[in-house]
Specification:
It is a single chain. The chain has one domain: Muramoyl-pentapeptide Carboxypeptidase, domain 2 (2-Layer Sandwich), CATH 3.30.1380.10. The termini are far apart. Helix 2 packs across helix 4. The protein is an alpha+beta fold and 120 residues long. It binds zinc ion (ZN).
């Protein structure tokens, strides 16, 4: 059973698309809990686990880190929260970060390029 100190099943249910904490990898959740503690601010998850079929239907590869249960998109609407989330993500050991105007993607997939930060 996948557990988290800071993130409840309810938060995954309200993700887009809706998913379960049980779809996530425990090691990723441990990192996300560390990120939450280091950032010291409320963390809202927009998107977490996504099935390969869902991502393909949206024109994505279907092999991204979200399909592995190793990625989350964290809502970030201000430069201050974006900075705190990125700083905490790097300190927590996330080596793959994507920056959007409205969210920060973090994942710890070892199957994808490491130490990368991209823009959407
Ligand atoms: Zn993402």
């Amino acid at each position: 059973m996948i557990t988290s100190k800071h993130f409840s099943e309810k938060e995954f249910k309200s993700c887009s698309p809706s998913c379960s904490l049980q779809d996530m990898k425990q090691s990723t959740m441990n990192r996300l809990d560390t990120l939450r503690e280091l950032a010291g601010i409320p963390i809202v998850i927009n998107s977490a686990y996504r099935s390969s079929a869902h991502d393909k239907s949206k024109g994505r590869s279907g092999t991204g880190a979200h399909t592995l249960g190793q990625a989350v998109d964290i809502r970030c609407n201000t430069s201050e929260t974006r900075f705190k989330v990125v700083q905490a993500a790097i300190a927590a050991g996330f080596s793959r970060i994507g920056i959007d105007k409205a969210f920060v993607h973090v994942d710890d997939s070892s199957q994808h390029a490491q130490c990368v930060m991209w823009l959407y």
